[in-house]
């Protein structure tokens, strides 16, 4: 009987650092789920679901969606063992200490293998966000999201470093280069991972 599974990982990093693109690639490479809370909200807003529309009001202003709402959505996804048992890459969650504590509770006996801080300088992520031109990428919301990253999300880097699960990966370079660096980081913490 095989107990082999893929890694359970979290991608931290500013918006525009490439978490979405790289998260998707890693999910395919390891055969695991890519769970992006931002994407979940965008999808449910498009579908006209109340929670999604509620979230959109915050997203459009560059504010964080309230913890209760985010945690409820993540909790629901983790209720489905078939989806998350093989492993997962969480992209954009947790973004606050409260969310990190809740994630511990949700995962219980199945702790995170690796938390990756995808590191890209602020001026570069600003250029990238301006260039991608997503609906919520106004100058004001870009500024606000960077501010919230510093006050709410950046402390999680230390939080996970203290737990010895943190790896910092340079997010500059081509998509392939960053992907290779990410695979190397995951490989060092999760050596039995699938190829
Ligand atoms: P992203 O797709 O990760 O760029 O997220 C887009 C937007 O969704 C963010 O600017 C937030 O408004 C919201 N969002 C996504 N994930 C979270 C989270 N974990 N906590 C709070 N807000 C979130």
Describe the structure.
- This protein has 195 residues and is α/β, with parallel strands linked by helices.
- It has a single domain (8-186), classed as P-loop containing nucleotide triphosphate hydrolases (Rossmann fold), CATH 3.40.50.
- Helices cover 56% and strands 12% of the residues.
- A 5-stranded parallel beta sheet has the order 2-3-1-4-5, with helices on both faces.
- The longest helix is centred in the C-terminal third of the chain and has 15 residues, at 139-153.
- The two termini are 19 Å apart.
- The mean pLDDT is 94.
- The protein binds adenosine monophosphate.
- Adenosine monophosphate (AMP) binds next to helix 2 and helix 3.
CATH architecture label:
3-Layer(aba) Sandwich
Low-confidence stretches: none
The percent range for strand residues is: 5-15%
Helix content: 55-70%
What is the CA–CA distance across the termini? Answer: 19 Å
Spell the H/E element sequence.
EHEHHHHEHEHHHEH
How confident overall, as mean pLDDT? 94
Rg result: 16 Å
List the domain count as a whole number. 1
Q: List each distinct ligand once.
A: adenosine monophosphate
User: Care to count the β-strands?
Assistant: 5
Major sheet summary line: 5 strands, parallel
- The number of helical runs is 10
Task: Please render the helix and strand layout as text.
Elements: E1 8-12, H1 19-30, E2 33-36, H2 37-46, H3 50-60, H4 67-78, H5 81-84, E3 88-91, H6 97-107, E4 114-119, H7 122-132, H8 139-153, H9 155-162, E5 166-170, H10 175-189
Parallel strand pairs: 1-3, 1-4, 2-3, 4-5
Helix pairs in contact: 1-10, 2-3, 4-6, 7-8
Adenosine monophosphate binds at residues 15, 36-39, 41, 58-59, 63-65, 70, 92-93, 95, 99, 145.
